[in-house]
Amino acid sequence: MDRILDELKTAARAAGIEIREVPLAMSDATARSGLVKLRGVPVLFLDPATDRDEAVRLLVKALAGRDLDDLYLSPAARSLLEERQT
Predict the structure, then answer these.
(1) What is the model's pLDDT at position 30?
(2) Virtual torsion, Cα 78, 84, 85, 86, nearest 10 deg
(3) Rounded CA gap, 13 and 63, in Å?
(4) What is the pTM of this model?
């Protein structure tokens, strides 16, 4: 799963999504990760404490609907993205 996680991070960056891995745990905050736009640039905040499966889910969600046809993705990664599309 780590290989797929790294591959999805690379794909996100290639698709123009900035990834920031920063601790988001605060006593009064409920958000642990999320996709936002900062000055028109999509930024995915990932808390390092987020488990791998959740990080993969967030990356797949962030990549949904983006044109990735020109980007090589392993069959496993492409399958995750296609599952999200259907």
Answers:
(1) 65
(2) 110
(3) 10
(4) 0.86
